[in-house]
Amino acid sequence: MAPIGLTDVAITDFVVNQRHGVIGLVDVISPKTLPSCYIQLPEKRVTTERLIMEAPTTGKGALSAPGPENLGLNLCCGGDLRGRCDCATLGFIQIVNHGVSVDEQNELRAAGRGFFDLPTEEKKRYWEGSSVSETAWYMTSFNPYKEAKLEWRDSQV
């Protein structure tokens, strides 16, 4: 149950319409409880154990399979277009043997953390659909219009 004054409509307005994102909700409102529609069933939750056991990996060779129309399938299925597409289950894959150094990976992580540490008004400038950049935008996976169980995740793409 939501605290007094924190309705589903108010949350949606604040997070999506006012472009604060989920991190803004946590930083500004700091809800102590969430409505049940935002809580995943235990069997659907991503846990550390599940990630370690189930996270699919693929090499960069999957990028070179024939036909650009197959790129998503190539990445998800490790190049085996008839195979089971694990990324459809977890929503991501890990690409290995990509040649990006550990230092570069750490710099990318630091840049991502730096973005989310920006003030809300600065992050709003990059909101999906009206970003000041053609190559980067800010978005939330919080979509009450499409999801039965809502996710609490913001992304910088």
UniProtKB/TrEMBL annotation:
Keywords: Iron, Metal-binding
Pfam families xref list: DIOX_N (PF14226)
Signal peptide region: none
Keyword Iron attributed: yes
SUPFAM superfamilies: Clavaminate synthase-like (SSF51197)
MF (Gene Ontology): metal ion binding
Domain Non-haem dioxygenase N-terminal: 87-155
The keyword Protein biosynthesis appears for this protein: no
Top-rank lineage group of the source organism: Eukaryota
Name under which the protein is recorded: Non-haem dioxygenase N-terminal domain-containing protein
Annotated organism of origin: Brassica cretica (Mustard)
Source species taxonomy: Eukaryota, Viridiplantae, Streptophyta, Embryophyta, Tracheophyta
